[in-house]
Amino acid sequence: MTSTTPASTLPEFPAGTILGYPRIGPRRELKKAIEAFWAGKTSAEEVEAVAADLRKRTRTHLAGLGLRTDVPAIPSAFSFYDQVLDATNLVGAVPARFADLVDAEGRLDLAGYSTVARGRGEDLPLEMTKWFDTNYHYLVPEIGPETEFRYASDRTVREFVEGLADDVLTRPVLVGPVTYLALAKPTETAPEGFTPLDRLADLLPVYATVLRELAKAGATWVQLDEPALVSESLDVPLDRVREAFAQAYTVLATELARPERPAILVAAPYADLAESLDVVAASDVEGVALDLVRGAAPTAAVPGLAGKVVVGGVIDGHNIWRADLSAKLEVLERLETLGAAQVAAGTSTSLFHVPHTLDDEPALDATLKSWLAFADQKVTEIVTLAEGLSEGREAIHTQLLEASDAVRSRATAPGVVRPEVRERAASLTEDAFNRGPFAERKTAQAERLNLPPLPTTTIGSFPQTPEIRKARAAHDKGELSTEQYEEEMRAEIRRVVELQESIGLDVLVHGEPERNDMVQYFAENLDGFAVTQNGWVQSYGSRCTRPSILWGDVSRPAPITVGWTQYTQSLSSKPVKGMLTGPVTILAWSFVRDDQPLSDTANQVALALRDEITDLEEAGIAIVQVDEPALRELLPLKEKDHAAYLDWSVRSFRLSTAGVRPDTQIHTHLCYSEFGQIVGAIDGLDADVTSIEAARSKMEILADIANAGYPRAVGPGVYDIHSPRVPGEDEVEELLTAAVKAIDLDQLWVNPDCGLKTRRYAEVTPSLESILAATRAVRATLA
Ligand SMILES: Nc1nc2c(c(=O)[nH]1)N[C@@H](CNc1ccc(C(=O)N[C@@H](CCC(=O)N[C@@H](CCC(=O)N[C@@H](CCC(=O)O)C(=O)O)C(=O)O)C(=O)O)cc1)CN2
Ligand code: MET
Ligand SMILES: [Zn+2]
């Protein structure tokens, strides 16, 4: 091992580690416990006990897989809801509207913590938004000039001590101070020009306190996650983040010296650290974790790395393919030539983006399984690479061969490359991506649909009731026949149609009861995908998804939604909107093959959807919505990659939708409010109607739409479905009046922010009634 500074000046660091591990539990134990607590069915003590047991089992399990316990290889990175909310709790930055929930020491109890996350009465919860380019959502801190920071939660220290009591020396993980503020938004009362990062100097003493407390408790290393260092897509420019980093770590690493604090490992996952590496190297932190899946290792020695530990994140924390260990070891070996004190094998990101284990997937095809690695299998990969690093290649000879064999078997397996799918994609001409002029479509659709001004509709799903889920679970177990199951779903559709008719909506939906998830459902019905039974991954709070595995060439063996949609249309004389998930979102929310460009994979999915839309059209359906809520999410973190991404993503959407007649109306749905950021791409989709989230931001996006001269129709959401609140008629009327003023009347649709699947009927019915009452009132003013 090359080392310019004796590694002995550093506390010992393991040869292999992971940046984080799933925390929901292999069978979603934490989800079940915390949801029971919210429902008033269990006490906070019981939830704490479940959580402590889960943490204990996780430590034991990871040790059993080979991570060391005498040096900090196992991260201590638990959360009841979200790690950014935990940081808010740690630094006492609870928004003023929840001030009554904190005690004299500034502490929130579990109930208070949950309320900040979920809201109550008129108090909106913290806003939820995507964590970098993932399907994980964090709660946005609200920071103003008046925010008081204080060390308000000793949870991190307690969880570290809990590990120590079990003889496991863990590495506590915190969201770093720079990323914490970079992800925050200013409070509503903050003056123009204020940014949360302005408060860095005031925040740092709290982090210094935590570091001191951790050192006192015996922590040798701590991990501070600073992914803000890699992103060019945040509100703050990257230069400012780098400056803030230098300032922060002068205080935390230079002025606060060891042994008063643990050694600091700065983790920078999700993209290439690029020039940010220089600021980290120049600081006095003791270690840096690089994402070497998304980023590249430096090619020449970096002077500042002498004396530091470098964790080479070669094992993908964000996808599930088994690694070519030989190639990964090579990357680590090259990293060893760059002058660091020590190189360790690591994951590129926390493993909480992948499911717990393949061992709980008995139904998964054995060959496919041999190509995959979930969190536990990735831990084993790390342990193997660590052995290779310390003992040499020969020591892991067998494992290297096995890994190479798996990679080779995947390349030649049947279904991975299917000539008929390839030929169809290769023979596409530009025509396949283009519909006729919008003006003609608009006239043809108006004639066919004959809708009133301000047409009302919903985004697709209606509440997924416990009864629906129970029926599906029973059907999956073989306890309910397919015939019975389908009849139950048709009964649900009849109820949903009746409800929409009685409320008076203009364009109806079937409510999506038959879908477990808007991506998994399509994956189950397309060739080229596999799905898991227990492969749960946290999306936000207690909500999880089972991302599908897109492993082969994609095609549609049979129509998927046509029967359900046709049945729904038979129940009503109003138009029923067909409902599909778009190619970009299907990719974003699945684990996708990494052996070909995403654009090729997207076009295969698009062609399958195109056939589905053609079949819907032939069945008499006049409106089809193709949801693309993940269009913004997949936007690369680096600006230089934006154009290429927007090009292929927009083209795949167009490929899926451009096969229809002019009088068939294409809708799309995007559920975030940053319309301005990607307005060019939204325009490129060429959808006739686009619904978008707008209620929480009070229709601010309408200005973007008007300014951009956007020609087609939009449905800015008037009901925030992420909250249990029921909006009143006046509130909706105010939003609609603002909308009518901002853009042309014939461009405007009325709808909620997103689907209603996570809500209850007790909330949905009165909310939709408010929407219809407000729409009628506004229509009356137009006459
Ligand atoms: N993939 C995806 N990503 C997305 C979204 C989305 O809809 N899908 N929406 C945005 C917000 N994210 C979300 C993520 C998850 C959920 C969600 O509601 N998840 C459900 C699970 C959905 C599901 O897969 N349901 C299955 C399985 C349900 C289940 O838990 N069944 C019980 C048994 C049934 C019972 O007895 O109750 C079990 O398996 O134990 C089904 O309906 O079939 C949950 O966590 O509770 C909502 C939004 C962004 N990202
Ligand atoms: C996350 S976007 C959801 C769109 C889907 N059609 C629904 O209504 O649930
Ligand atoms: Zn949505």
UniProtKB/TrEMBL annotation:
Binding positions (L-homocysteine): 459-461, 512, 627
Ranges where the Cobalamin-independent methionine synthase MetE C-terminal/archaeal domain occurs: 454-775
Active site: 722 (proton donor)
UniProt xrefs under InterPro entries: Cbl-indep_Met_Synth_N, Cobalamin-indep_Met_synthase, Met_Synth_C/arc, UROD/MetE-like_sf
Binding site for Zn(2+): 669, 671, 693, 754
Keywords: Amino-acid biosynthesis, Metal-binding, Methionine biosynthesis, Methyltransferase, Repeat, Transferase, Zinc
Catalysed reactions, semicolon-separated: 5-methyltetrahydropteroyltri-L-glutamate + L-homocysteine = tetrahydropteroyltri-L-glutamate + L-methionine
CDD domains: CIMS_C_terminal_like (cd03311), CIMS_N_terminal_like (cd03312)
GO biological process: methionine biosynthetic process; methylation
Binding positions (Zn(2+) 1): 669, 671, 693, 754
UniProt-listed Enzyme Commission number(s): 2.1.1.14
A GO MF label: zinc ion binding
Pfam families for the chain: Meth_synt_1, Meth_synt_2
The record's free-text note on cofactor binding: Binds 2 Zn(2+) ions per subunit. Binds 1 zinc ion per subunit.
Task performed by this protein: Catalyzes the transfer of a methyl group from 5-methyltetrahydrofolate to homocysteine resulting in methionine formation.
HAMAP family per the UniProt record, alphabetical: Meth_synth
PANTHER family: 5-METHYLTETRAHYDROPTEROYLTRIGLUTAMATE--HOMOCYSTEINE METHYLTRANSFERASE
Name this polypeptide is given: 5-methyltetrahydropteroyltriglutamate--homocysteine methyltransferase
Lineage: Bacteria, Bacillati, Actinomycetota, Actinomycetes, Micrococcales
Recorded name of the encoding gene: metE
